[in-house]
Design brief:
Two copies of one chain form a homodimer. By secondary structure, chain A is an alpha/beta fold. Helices cover about 25% and strands about 20% of the residues of chain A. Chain A contains seven helices and ten strands. Chain A has helices at about 20-30, 70-80, 100-110, 120-125, 160-165, 175-185, 215-220, and strands at about 5-10, 35, 55, 85-90, 110-115, 140-145, 165-170, 195-200, 205-210, 230. In chain A, strands 3-2-4-1-5 form a five-stranded parallel sheet, with helices on both faces. In chain A, strands 6-7-10-8-9 form a five-stranded mixed sheet, sandwiched between helices. In chain A, strand 6 (about 140-145), helix 5 (about 160-165) and strand 7 (about 165-170) form a beta-alpha-beta unit. Chains A and B meet through helix 1, helix 3, helix 4, strand 6 and helix 5 of A and helix 1, helix 3, helix 4, strand 6 and helix 5 of B.
Chain lengths: ~240, ~240
């Protein structure tokens, strides 16, 4: 019988290397192989044992990214040779993480899959600026969306989110900022507070606030790009 | 001049004592006072130094809970005497955590406030069952809501959530399960998968799945109560 490794999907958190869980550190220490990508802070690799294989599977400057298919294939190949394969993903693996494709690939060859949740940037990055997802008397819910779907479109559900009183948190939305702001102004006051945090939790973080009416101009002045978290809602005014 | 301590709002995670961050552990180790409540796993108190004050501020069997006002007052009193006061909260302090009231009380007497995000039960508890918040091709967003607002009502925005394709995650919603299921069946197919996880991430966890049509009956059979996480959406079918 062939060896069949275990695939560990592990959340690396939003960037600050202290915002990873004890369980994630333990799993990294026991890993034979660690596959990580661009949103993972490389400082976390200090937890990996000396003789483990460390494999970068993200984008490199001026080079193409590993395709999802290539990553899936690597998981399967490592799974044939090693016991503990860690797929270390920025934030939480189950929040816009394409984890299902990796799970399916691993399962297809009989690998077990284990999950270690991470601190999601969607919540933690605003929180570190004092912006809560919910606050009693202001909002009872929050809605987290990607700004760009697989087909490159704005998500169909965004008008429903705009109509609600939910705090709306959008990842990877800065390129659609103009469209998003105009959509929300159809349903919410144009002075609704908005925040954008780029490279949240890291020393190079950029944080701007404004309103639906002026956030686009402010984002241009601050030269905001991805990875960034966009927060729309009255809770933004609570930030420090 | 009087001493003025720092208030640290620290996320304790969903229950499993390994699902706390390195930063939270470091802050607990340095704390002079740790105030914690019912949703915090007491195993986490092992990180607190020997001579620190440990204060329980949650409900006890057969006794009234500390009121929010009493907790705020304690923060202020400890802040006058000690340097580092930790408010350890289940999950993430900024997800339905009433953190703003504690922040306001601390600030009113000149205390600084610091935030250490935690793993939110809303995301991690489903994730540990293999249920992702989002999955490419199924849903681009997720909506997290409380099931019971401050006024005891169902949140106003729930019909908008029901109309969307978002994964809907409801905390503290089991007592409203019948109303919630009927509302969602107005907009989604009655065989839409639903999961409920009580005491998620802990050995005493109870996990049930069903559909909008039959989840209420199944919850009664399993005698489900709070704290529980309710997940509605096609992603539930991905669970393991």
């Amino acid at each position: 019988m062939n060896k069949v490794g275990v695939l560990w999907l592990v959340g690396a958190g939003p960037g600050d290397p202290e915002l990873i869980t004890l369980k994630a550190v333990r799993v990294l220490q026991q890993a034979d192989v660690v596959m990580y990508d661009a949103l993972v802070n490389e400082a976390l690799l200090q937890h990996v044992k000396q003789d483990a294989i460390i494999q970068y599977v993200g984008k490199r400057l001026g080079q193409h990214s590993h395709t999802q298919e290539a990553i899936n294939q690597l998981i399967v190949e490592y799974g044939r040779k090693y016991s503990a394969i860690v797929r270390l993903k920025g934030g939480d693996p189950f929040v816009f993480g394409r984890a299902q494709e990796e799970i399916a690939a691993a399962r297809a060859v009989g690998m077990q899959v284990q999950m270690v949740p991470g601190i999601s940037s969607a919540l933690a990055v605003p929180a570190l600026q004092g912006i809560p997802a919910t606050s009693r008397g202001i909002t009872d819910s929050f809605w987290v969306s990607t700004g760009t779907t697989a087909s490159g479109q704005l998500p169909d559900d965004l008008p429903l989110a705009a109509q609600s009183r939910a705090t709306v948190i959008i990842l990877m939305g800065t390129q659609q900022l103009s469209v998003i702001a105009r959509l929300f102004m159809q349903y919410r006051k144009s002075n609704t507070p908005v925040a954008i945090i780029q490279n949240g939790s890291l020393p190079k973080q950029v944080f701007i606030t404004g309103t639906l009416a002026d956030i686009e101009e402010k984002a241009i002045v601050a030269a905001i790009g991805n990875p960034a978290v966009l927060v729309i809602g009255e809770v933004v005014a609570l930030g420090w």
